[in-house]
Amino acid sequence: MAGIDSSISIEMDSYNTEEVEKLHRLMNARALRKKRIRKTVLVCVNILFALFMLFPLLYSVSVSIMPGDELFTMDLNILPSNPTFENYVRAFTQVPLVRFILNSFLVAGCITIGQIITCSLAAFAFSFLEFKGKNFLFMLVMATMMVPGEAVIISNYLTVSSMGILDTYIVLILPSLTSAMGIFLFRQFYMTFPISLYESAKLDGCGNLRFIVKILIPLTKSAIGAMAVYTFINAWNMYMWPLLVTGSEEMRTVQIGISMLNSVDAQSITLMMAGVVAIIIPSMVIFIVGQKQLISGMFSGAVKG
Questions:
Q1: Domain 96-300 has CATH 1.10.3720.10
Q2: Most CB atoms within 10 A, among 52, 97, 266, 285?
Q3: In terms of pTM, does the model score above 0.90?
């Protein structure tokens, strides 16, 4: 009887084990199915939200390849029935748009390089050097962030006018060669490094400039990338200052020169859209390429340690 009872209990145990495994497989399948459904729903919602956010840009592209007679109708023409690239050809031939783009590239590139150099040097001084009034000077630099650019634009114009550099590349680049935002960004990043790093380099005979070039710059590539993307996009989109200090077509940047496509003609709207799409592509490419660096650089100095 004991042998029979033990065999029955073994069979019951194996039966229960099989049932438990079957139940686990069923639960795992249900959980996997729910996870897939949830992921599919989230992807669909994100796609719809992305299309909603990108609709103005997509509609601008649609208008840029739309003939003028299709735009001013009673019908809601979202997509052109007869797409054409004539608007782009006219936009590049009616005004020197290529010259405007090259001017903006030159100005934005010089401003970006200048801000990276000046802001990194100033941030190094505020982070590693000890001098009298350092905290007070840093507070003054941060206080300039609260002063709007419109409040000093007239005084800046009078200064550069007295210097005789109006309508030149210098006047477009010089006032923007440094920024409080860049100094703050680099300083916060440098504060994550221990002061012993600088002291050890000094003991080994490393000068300040060599310490910056050989040690700090390789360790701050994410901050430099974030600063480069942020500065380039801001410089590319400058409007008020180039409008005030330039007067000839040779010195116009894209944000000023694109307005030359506007006229009383109905065709000017499609031309304007073609020009806007053409000049927005470089800044979008810069942002997409440097998006990872921009995000990591902005948050890398937020946590110390």
A1: yes
A2: 97
A3: no
